[in-house]
């Protein structure tokens, strides 16, 4: 047990998970969030009778043994109610063939992909082996990248023979797996992989790390799966927030961190904060858990020597993540009678992948007989940042019309049929989340930046810990919660407080 104060910066799912874990273990925790609510990119907002998920619209890890199920079981709190997505998604390649249904049942999914992609069996078999090996490895709560001897001990205790074998593919891409399995010329399969992998790794098949891609391509199948939450994604952040407050942790909303500095003589951190009324204050902590994009560290530590020069340089050279344009709409369910999935993805010539999330009847997001639809596509943050206000408003309308036209081409929904419609851009996400230029999804999962080659949760500065979608194992609510668990275990170990989350 320790009375030393720990400050967690950022109230997204990673920050909430870290705060709840530390508070439950008796640590003195303060969670700082600049917004008026927690949740971050998994937050929600209301428009009249409609509730919209800001960014994340699905969740993994609610199944028995999944990261969220384990967390809430340990925290002794009911996990959010959700229903399994089956199919997890329909992917329409817009080539005249029927959409590809990603079924929850592994046997049904095997039949589907063999029908859709003849000759690809060896590729999927290899992905399945990698997937099983990766989960066996990850379920031991391993630590990556390895930064010291404690990390190495955790890593080596998680390694199995297959881990070493597939480690030979650590610098390979998903396209390399296609080549190994003699199906690199299957253009339909290539297009399907590009669309799906962009959702989960922000990269196409030729740039997605093989070990990462093989895992996320099979996230929708039992015994794991993707879930749709009752109410909204806010039910996840609300549950974690409740655990934090129950166990004595403090939550300061509308408190924006403006600077952080380490004091080497006392091994402590000073955090400058401004609240919603404009009042400034300073907080002191022995440890700082930083859940914002690591690029934010550069601005918050400018003018002081808290970060070593080589570490600052590495962060400055990180690849630029994507932004997102997101359409939030509401429609009568009479226009959705031909849609049998909550998630639908298709290719649009001038947008790339367009991913639709459709609310369920009675899930609390829309009145009965109506539905919310969220349609998202990746975009360049630099493009939107360079626009003056007048051109920005015009471009928003251009992209809004592009999305409405794309949806009409697939579902025959006329622009006048919408009960509500609005568009968010990277500028909107920058305002909502405080992320630089509105970047989303963390680092692209390339062979050079994923897993053992990414940023460590253990920084080179004593008492500074990182977690979130730029840290292993990557984006998504399950990924950021796993990274928060990893950072908390490392922090607790330095205090002589060994910790493992019960299986």
From TrEMBL:
<feature type="domain" description="Amine oxidase">
    <location>
        <begin position="13"/>
        <end position="491"/>
    </location>
</feature>
<dbReference type="GO" id="GO:0016491">
    <property type="term" value="F:oxidoreductase activity"/>
</dbReference>
<dbReference type="InterPro" id="IPR014104">
    <property type="entry name" value="Myxoxanthophyll_desat_CrtD"/>
</dbReference>
<dbReference type="InterPro" id="IPR002937">
    <property type="entry name" value="Amino_oxidase"/>
</dbReference>
<dbReference type="Pfam" id="PF01593">
    <property type="entry name" value="Amino_oxidase"/>
</dbReference>
<dbReference type="InterPro" id="IPR045892">
    <property type="entry name" value="CrtISO-like"/>
</dbReference>
<dbReference type="GO" id="GO:0016116">
    <property type="term" value="P:carotenoid metabolic process"/>
</dbReference>
<dbReference type="InterPro" id="IPR036188">
    <property type="entry name" value="FAD/NAD-bd_sf"/>
</dbReference>
<protein>
    <submittedName>
        <fullName>Phytoene dehydrogenase and related protein</fullName>
    </submittedName>
</protein>
